[in-house]
């Protein structure tokens, strides 16, 4: 299938589900909502479709993709579950948790989707539209965030359209997503490891397992090597505007991404958007990518970001902000 010249946009519903399943079966690219962010779906067993997805996103081919399935039974056909994986699947699926497992014997997901690794990243999403599409299609679907690679992740169909219209076949529109940051990724190895913080807080996972997750090894995040899981490149989720983290003051001409009470000098800011005026991390996560996109569009001198508590969903928020700032951050934080 050639690159689409016109992208169809349909509201979530039976017609959209049927069309999504039809296009996926033909090797098409379909953007659809999940509870975390909008994903760009392609048949995980079709190398040509996945190559087209990489091309549309401008995504490095060494960055693996998450395979989305409708239920645990389908997940067992492509990944081998140990006790850790089974516990976490029972506790958090469907939901914003991705498990990295050894590939199952006869796994139909092509090597291009797993970047040649012997492991596979699997998720069962909770969003009703995503679930319906997966059931109708009947196979695993890779679905990285539906945006140009490295850009701020999309939390609405409008965000998808601004990045990918004319490059993909269909956008299924179901309004704003609920969680607003990508799934947490856990490697279900001998010692379970947190590979990417996300929509399920570390603390909740550790309570289920009864043990601490291993800290991500530093060399697993290098842009020079092959990442173990999606979203681990050092520079990622990045706006075009320079990002300045942990800002306690705002310089004239800067935009401010606030949290709680606005920082000193907010009245001089080119624009102010508050992730959560009441300091609610769930609200902040849901607003993060949308607000970054809106501030980026203002073309300010920089985006000054106030400190975010590094607990609960704050760990995922800070991870995304650190990657957004990589290569753009003012080293003289203030």
In brief:
With 334 residues, this protein is an alpha/beta fold. 29% of the residues lie in helices and 16% in strands.
Description of the structure:
- By secondary structure, this protein is an alpha/beta fold.
- It folds into 2 domains: 8-221, Alpha-Beta Complex (DHBP synthase), CATH 3.90.870; 243-325, Rossmann fold (3-Layer(aba) Sandwich), CATH 3.40.50.11030.
- Helix content is 29%, strand content 16%.
- The chain has 10 helices and 14 strands.
- It has helices at 14-25, 47-57, 72-76, 83-92, 111-114, 128-137, 157-164, 202-209, 281-297, 314-325, and strands at 8-11, 30-33, 38-43, 66-68, 97-102, 119-123, 141-142, 170-173, 184-187, 193-196, 243-244, 255-258, 271-274, 303-305.
- Strand 9 (184-187) and strand 10 (193-196) form a beta hairpin.
- The longest helix has 17 residues, at 281-297.
- Residues 329-334 have low confidence and may be disordered.
Mean pLDDT: 89
Under CATH at level 1, the class of the largest domain stands as Alpha Beta
Which word captures the global form? globular
How far is it from the N-terminal to the C-terminal residue, by CA?
51 Å
CATH superfamily of the largest domain: DHBP synthase
Strand content: 15-25%
Series of secondary-structure elements, N-terminal to C-terminal: EHEEHEHHEHEHEHEEEHEEEHEH
Name the poorly predicted regions.
329-334
Rg from Cα: 19 Å
The largest β sheet comes out as: 10 strands, mixed
């Amino acid at each position: 299938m050639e690159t689409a010249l016109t992208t169809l946009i349909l509201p979530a519903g039976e017609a959209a589900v049927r069309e999504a399943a039809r296009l996926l079966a033909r090797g098409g690219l379909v953007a659809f909502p999940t509870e975390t962010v909008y994903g760009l779906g392609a048949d995980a067993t079709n190398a040509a479709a996945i190559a087209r997805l990489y091309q549309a996103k401008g995504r490095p081919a060494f960055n693996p993709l998450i395979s989305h399935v409708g239920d645990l039974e389908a997940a067992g056909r492509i990944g081998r579950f140990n006790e850790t994986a089974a516990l976490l699947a029972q506790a958090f699926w469907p939901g914003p948790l991705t498990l990295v497992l050894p590939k199952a014997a006869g796994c139909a997901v092509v090597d291009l989707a797993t970047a040649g690794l012997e492991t596979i990243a699997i998720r069962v999403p909770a969003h009703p539209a995503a679930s319906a599409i997966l059931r109708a299609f009947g196979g695993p679907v890779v679905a990285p965030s539906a945006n140009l690679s490295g850009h701020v992740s999309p939390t609405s169909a409008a965000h998808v359209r601004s990045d990918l219209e004319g490059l993909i076949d269909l956008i299924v529109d179901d309004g704003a997503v609920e969680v607003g940051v990508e799934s947490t990724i856990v490697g279900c190895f001998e010692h379970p490891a947190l590979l990417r913080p996300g929509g399920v807080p570390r603390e909740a996972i550790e309570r289920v397992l009864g043990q601490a997750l291993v800290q991500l090894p530093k060399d697993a995040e290098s842009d020079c090597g092959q990442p173990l899981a999606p979203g681990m490149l050092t520079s990622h989720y990045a706006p075009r505007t320079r990002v300045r983290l942990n800002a306690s003051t705002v310089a004239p001409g800067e935009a401010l991404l606030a949290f709680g009470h606005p920082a000193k000098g907010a009245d001089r800011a080119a624009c102010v958007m508050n992730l959560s005026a009441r300091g609610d991390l769930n609200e902040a996560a849901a607003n993060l990518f949308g607000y970054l996109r809106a501030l980026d569009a203002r073309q300010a001198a920089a985006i000054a970001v106030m400190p975010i508590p590094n607990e609960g969903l704050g760990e995922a928020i800070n991870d995304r902000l650190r990657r957004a700032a990589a290569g753009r951050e003012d080293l003289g934080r203030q």
